[in-house]
Amino acid sequence: MIKARVTVTLKNGVLDPQGKAIEGALGALGFDGVGHVRQGKVFDVEIEGADKSKAESDLKAMCDKLLANTVIENYTISLD
What pLDDT does 80 receive? Predict the structure, then answer.
């Protein structure tokens, strides 16, 4: 069994209204000095088998087809 973590974030230059809202809320809660908050998504995925190369290839296909909007988002994959 291969465990993987896929992290999806907005590309630089893409507006992040949710990140701005979080930034404002943190300030309202008294957390001073917090700036430039960007939000993202994390997917923990388990893949059967032991072939890490195939797992990484499959995960890239998953990201390109479903998990990430590659027009506005970047993704990183880490395997355990």
Answer: 87
